[in-house]
Amino acid sequence: MENQTQIICSELFQKHRKVEVALYPALLTWKEIEKSRKRSSGASEAEQGHDIKVCEIVAIHKAEDEAETQTRKHPKRIKQHSQQYPYAFTVAYVRRTQQHLWRCSDVTFHCADQQICDQWIQVTNEQLSLLTNRPKNLLVYINPYGGKRRGKHIYEQKVAPVFRRAGIFTDVIVTERANHARDHLKTEANLDDYDGVVCVGGDGMFSEILHGLVTRIQADHNVDQNQPDAELVPCPLRIGIIPAGSTDCICFATVGTNDPVTSALHIIVGDSQPMDVCSVHHNDVFLKYSVSLLGYGFYGDVLTDSERNRWLGPARYDLSGFKTFLCHNHYEGTVSFLPAEDNVGHPRDKLQCRSGCRICQHKHSSKDEHNEVSEEKEKPAEDGEGDWSVIHGKFIAINSASMSCACPRSPKGLSPSAHLADGTTDLILVRKCSRLDFFKHLLRHTNNDDQFDHWFVDVHRVRKFRFQPWHHELVPLEDQSEHPEKPDLSPTSSLQETCDYSTAESSWNCDGEILHHAAIQVSVQCGLIRLFARGIEEQQDAEGAV
Ligand SMILES: Nc1ncnc2c1ncn2[C@@H]1O[C@H](COP(=O)(O)OP(=O)(O)OP(=O)(O)O)[C@@H](O)[C@H]1O
């Protein structure tokens, strides 16, 4: 700090204590310079210096309202002080609390001179205006029916006031139907008017924004999404997620918590987290984009079953998970994949993707160079030779995790070391095994044991993969006792409705939506989008109240 130029420094009052306040290009600091007569002896919190990063200041403004409130609360004590120091300004800033939660805190400084007060507000605002990564205009979509149907309330009560305070202008659209946001972004929205798009809802709502935005950008640049090898144009607008759904995995994996105020603050300070997007094709026809989980078999079946029980709300996932586990289906097919280079690590290396992740940063700094190399490598691979690996087998689950997929229930996630923006996805192959073995594997998603440390689980970090189901004749249900692949479960009549062993194919769960094609081609598009997030911060420097 000493080697930074001081922009302004004054003796002001904070909570009746005389403090020296200084503004540097990157820091606002203050420390007490005169002990309060009332305070007992010994070191106190106020004697230590305080500092706030300028990039984490939300706003600075005159504190007239606050002075009035204080006077009403403590008339005698404050009256004398406010007569002496009638001018005040308040700095609103990000305060880290626990578990990655951010809050907007205030500190107010009083002074006797109006000019000094105005000068502080002016120079601080000038410093803030140099932070060009901060959004000024946002397009907000609210799903009023997501999660517990509190999206509108959450936005109006918790988010809009902080945006207003930070001087952010918003255009708000409350969606009237499914795909309203996607279609509006695709065709109508004037993207030039905004610095970012915010979705208030769950993962399904985020998927709408993703599809609307990516499709629009490709259309604007004449890129054909149906070409599996097309190099997609990255989105210039960042996406903010205000969690208000029943599943908010993408927010959790990129911020570390599902909290609307924390997300709003990450948007205000202009965080930027690149994120890989998988494009999914069937026979050279574009199907969907995915940023978190593509799951065939177990997770596909859970989703298919849960869709039948939407009336149950979030509890439907537990019920369907249990039913699907009891069914213990497996599916035959061929998985081919293009492994990633060694410099992006391995799914079992225990290097978790955190804020400022070295692997993701390296990937981006060397992206152009890397693209040239990988194009050359891929050519022979496209002919079915070279770098592609091919595995044929019977699988309980085939999962592709493009991020850890951590959520409050599974804090490590499906692939704890998956990276948000390294241009790869972790392909997890769970082969046919006993129900007990599969249970042990599932259990490890909730504790600290290595879920890949089983004879029936393979995991590969890949840049592309394909799946081709193995077609064989459908077996009528009554003939199943003779079928050699029948699992060792005697289905009860209620299970027979959901456990259709004769079905040769499952479906893909693509970020919580069902894909009706089993045969797919998947290609990872490195850092195609950016979120208003910074990844999960490693250490919490939780600060006490100022
Ligand atoms: N106004 C609307 N009416 C009905 N559906 C909507 C509306 N707006 C958005 N949707 C759809 O609602 C779905 C679920 O939304 P969202 O992800 O916000 O909530 P969720 O509770 O997490 O979802 P899920 O029920 O899938 O867990 C999305 O797929 C979205 O397309």
Topology:
Elements: E1 8-14, E2 17-23, E3 27-34, E4 50-53, E5 57-62, H1 64-73, H2 75-84, E6 87-96, E7 102-111, H3 114-129, E8 137-142, H4 151-165, E9 169-174, H5 180-188, E10 196-201, H6 203-220, E11 238-243, H7 249-255, H8 260-268, E12 273-282, E13 285-290, E14 293-297, H9 298-307, H10 315-327, E15 331-339, H11 358-365, H12 367-382, E16 389-401, E17 425-431, H13 435-443, E18 457-469, H14 493-498, E19 508-510, E20 513-515, E21 520-531
Parallel strand pairs: 8-9, 8-10, 10-11
Antiparallel strand pairs: 1-2, 2-3, 3-4, 5-6, 6-7, 12-13, 12-21, 14-16, 14-19, 15-16, 15-18, 16-17, 17-18, 18-21, 19-20
Helix pairs in contact: 1-2, 4-8, 5-6, 9-10
The chain binds adenosine-5'-triphosphate.
Structure description:
The chain is an alpha+beta fold and 546 residues long. The protein folds into 3 domains: 8-37 and 44-129, PH-domain like; 134-271, 3-Layer(aba) Sandwich (Rossmann fold), CATH 3.40.50; 277-364 and 386-473 and 499-524, Tumour Suppressor Smad4 (Sandwich), CATH 2.60.200. The chain has helices spanning 64-73, 75-84, 114-129, 151-165, 180-188, 203-220, 249-255, 260-268, 298-307, 315-327, 358-365, 367-382, 435-443, 493-498, and strands at 8-14, 17-23, 27-34, 50-53, 57-62, 87-96, 102-111, 137-142, 169-174, 196-201, 238-243, 273-282, 285-290, 293-297, 331-339, 389-401, 425-431, 457-469, 508-510, 513-515, 520-531. Strands 12, 13, 14, 15, 16, 17, 18, 19, 20 and 21 form a 10-stranded antiparallel sheet that branches. A hairpin with a 2-residue loop joins β1 and β2. α9 packs across α10 (315-327). The chain is elongated. The protein starts with 7 loop residues before the first strand and ends in a 15-residue tail after the last strand. The model is unreliable at 368-385, 473-502 and 542-546 (pLDDT under 50). The chain binds adenosine-5'-triphosphate.
